[in-house]
UniProtKB/TrEMBL annotation:
Protein name listed in UniProt: EPCR protein
Transmembrane regions: 197-218
This protein's encoding gene: Procr
UniProt-listed Pfam families: MHC_I_3
Organism name: Galbula dea
Cellular component, GO annotation: extracellular space
Keywords: Glycoprotein, Membrane, Signal, Transmembrane, Transmembrane helix
Length: 223
């Protein structure tokens, strides 16, 4: 919230202006002794829109029709099952007897004067780990010191279009354009418009969580 206020001040937002439109997602994954569990939520303009608990993702706001949402739920469940299997596989090769917690925080803002801001931040075990620079599609290490785990994760994330150019396009274009569309509808919900936003956020964060397997592997042995 402090960051948002500072950014608003830098952009010249007046107190009399309306609040920015926002879509924010927070997702956490915990890995311990070969098991993983994920949970999180998404909010549209401060209102809870989606909830993730274990293998279940719930649509709190009716942004997609039941048949489309059923397919989305199955996609999420299948990914989480696959991710869990990978964690078990890597744990057998390089067991880690302590908990690893990964948190992904991402989203976009559309300010009343038309300016925008998008972000993607990652923490590992409660410490800033990586951040994504949307302007040039690059990952920056935030971990204190020259830690090999952070260097390994940064190198892996820079290899793939899904975690560089695709993520940049989603955060810088797709997310913003849907908020712009919402602003022209004076707050009315649009089922068709929000479906790609929800899917993009889910897949974007899962791409990073998939790379977390490499982080755990690196931590458990050598990079």
């Amino acid at each position: 919230m402090l960051r948002l206020l500072l950014l608003c001040g830098a952009l010249g937002c007046g107190a009399e202006q309306a609040a920015p439109l926002t879509f924010i997602m927070l997702q956490r994954t915990r890995v311990f002794k070969g098991s993983s569990i994920s949970w999180g939520n998404a909010s549209l303009n401060g209102q809870l829109s989606h909830l993730l608990e274990g293998l279940n993702v719930t649509q709190v706001l009716p942004l997609e029709p039941p048949d489309a949402w059923a397919r989305r739920q199955q996609d999420v469940t299948n990914y989480l099952l696959y991710f869990g299997q990978l964690v078990k596989l890597f744990s057998k090769e390089r067991p880690i007897n302590y908990t690893q917690s990964l948190s992904c925080h991402l989203g976009c803002w559309l300010f009343p004067n038309g300016t925008t801001h998008s972000f993607y931040e990652v923490t590992l075990n409660g410490t800033a780990f990586l951040s994504f620079h949307v302007s040039n599609a690059t990952w920056e290490r935030r971990w204190p010191g020259g830690d090999a785990v952070a260097a390994f994760a940064q190198k892996e994330l820079m290899k793939y279009p899904m975690t560089t150019q695709d993520l940049q396009h989603f955060l810088n274009t797709t997310c913003i354009s849907i908020l712009q569309a919402q602003s022209t509808r004076t707050g009315k919900q649009s089922t068709r418009s929000h479906a790609p936003l929800v899917l993009g956020l889910i897949l974007g964060s899962f791409a990073l969580l998939g790379m977390a397997v490499g982080i755990f592997w690196c931590t458990g042995g050598s990079c």
